[in-house]
C-alpha cells in the first residue's frame, strides 16, 4: 500500500496525536468507550451465552476480556499496534499492511505506529479488525455479531420514521401516481442523506434516536447542505438513465451502504425508488463482511431489516414484501467485498481490488453513503476546504459516483467560497461543524 506520497505536505493525513482535534478525541475517549461497552456486554450476557453454548464458552469470554483489557490500556497509553494473531479473511493482508506502515510511515524512525501517532483511518480500521479477531479465534463466539443489539434497537427506535418513509415511497411509486417522472428524487436522496445522522459509532454505541424524521429533514435542513449536486446528478446521470434512449435492460446502480438500522431502511427506500421509477434494472448494495465501526451493515443486518419492516406499519409491510420480490428476482443484490473493510483510500481500488473496480465500471451510478466512505474517497486528509472534489478523490472514477454524507470527521473538499465565508462567519476557527453531523454534502464525481 502507498505509505507516503507527494500529497502528504499538501494535505496531511489526519492523525490522533494533535490535541483538540476530533481524531484526538476519538482515540482518547470514543475508542476506549467502545471497547468498554463490549466488555460490559459480555459480562451482562454471560449467563445467556453459557446457556446457549455450554460452560466451554466461559474460556472464550475470559480470553476476549483479557484481550480487551490489554487493548484499552494500549489505546489510552499510546502503545504500538500489535499484529493480528490469525490469517482468516484478510488477516495475512493486514500483517503485510502493518509491516509496510511500520517501516514506511516514519522513515527517520522517530515515531512508532501507535494509536495516537498512526494515520487515523488506518488505525481505526485496525481497531475494528482486531476486535473481530478476538471473537473469531474463539471456539464458540466466532460468528457472533457483538454490535447486533444496538443495530436492532436503532431500527426499533425509529419505527414511526420508517413508516413515514415507506408511505411516501409507496404513494409516489404507485403505477397510477399523478406525479412527474422525476418527482421525489430530491426528497428520496435527501432522506437517505439525513438518515446518516443515526451513526452509533459517533456515540460509542449509545442509543441515538433522531428527533426529526429523514423525510422531514429532506426539506427542513436544506440550509445545512453545504454542497448540493442533486440537480447536476439529475441532468447528467439520472435523467438520461430514465429516458434510456438505447433501451438498455442492464442499467445498474450500486449503493455502498453505511449504517444498519433506520439508515439502512432509508437506503432500501432509495433502492426501491430507483427500480420502481425506471432509473435502474438492478441495484447492488454493498455492505461489510464482518461487524464494523459499531453500526455498519452486514448481510445479516440487511436480511433482518427486510424481514422486520412489517413491524413499522402497513406501508412498511407492503414495502418489505416488495423488497423480498426484488431480492428473489435478483433486482436487489447484497455483496460484501473485503475491500470495504480495508483501510485503503478509494483511489487505489484499481490496484488493490482490481476485480471490484472492474465490476464497478459496469455501473451507471455508484452512491457512497456516510462518513467513512467519504473519508476513504478523499484519503482522510486535511484538504483546504476549497480544494476541488475531483482533486481530493485523486482520479477515482470507475463510473459516475455520488457521495451522501453528514459530516463527522475533519475532512471535506469542494466547498464554495460562499459556503466557506458563511461557516467562518458563524464558527470562526471552531471546526465543530465538521464533526457534529449537523452539516452535510451531496457531491457528484466521475462525470
Automatic annotation (TrEMBL):
Any single Gene Ontology cellular-component annotation: nucleus
Comment field on protein domains: Subfamily III proteins have a conserved RTxK motif about 40-50 residues from the C-terminus; the threonine may be replaced by serine or cysteine.
Catalytic activity as recorded in UniProt: beta-D-fructose 6-phosphate = dihydroxyacetone + D-glyceraldehyde 3-phosphate; beta-D-fructose 1-phosphate + H2O = D-fructose + phosphate; L-glutamyl-[protein] + S-adenosyl-L-methionine = [protein]-L-glutamate 5-O-methyl ester + S-adenosyl-L-homocysteine
EC number: 2.1.1.-, 3.1.3.-
Start and end residues of each Damage-control phosphatase ARMT1-like metal-binding domain: 26-420
Function: Metal-dependent phosphatase that shows phosphatase activity against several substrates, including fructose-1-phosphate and fructose-6-phosphate. Its preference for fructose-1-phosphate, a strong glycating agent that causes DNA damage rather than a canonical yeast metabolite, suggests a damage-control function in hexose phosphate metabolism. Has also been shown to have O-methyltransferase activity that methylates glutamate residues of target proteins to form gamma-glutamyl methyl ester residues. Possibly methylates PCNA, suggesting it is involved in the DNA damage response.
Pfam family, one: ARMT1-like_dom
Source superkingdom: Eukaryota
Required cofactor(s): Mn(2+); Ni(2+)
Family designation: Belongs to the damage-control phosphatase family. Sugar phosphate phosphatase III subfamily.
A single BP term in Gene Ontology: methylation
UniProtKB keywords: Hydrolase, Manganese, Metal-binding, Methyltransferase, Nickel, Transferase
InterPro entries, per database record: ARMT-1-like_metal-bd_sf (IPR036075), ARMT1 (IPR039763), ARMT1-like_metal-bd (IPR002791)
GO molecular function list: fructose 6-phosphate aldolase activity; fructose-1-phosphatase activity; metal ion binding; protein-glutamate O-methyltransferase activity; pyrophosphatase activity
Name this polypeptide is given: Sugar phosphate phosphatase
